[in-house]
Please model this.
Amino acid sequence: MLIANNWLNFLIRFTAMYHILPELYDLTAERLLEHIDRAEYFSGTVGFDYGDVECRLTASLIVYRRREVLPEGEREPVCDLVPVWWEFHTVADGVECLNDFSFTEIRERLS
Model:
């Protein structure tokens, strides 16, 4: 029975693909920017729940900013993130699932 359960977990883990929806990309970008704050380099993990799925982005990123001068003052929002390394994990019902996460989707949300 234990072998059957392990085999089932293996099949679920490596055959089920979790599709990343636009809303999840939006949430991931928002949480990531909160963690980056004013830094020029980010190396860390951002974890959160999305419905019943646990999500975790671990990344090392170079942060590029642009200077904006406005009547109410200056600011330097993030204009690009260049990933040195990243991985995005999705865990549903205690089982990690493969996913189709693309860091390009995060970068596109910054412009």
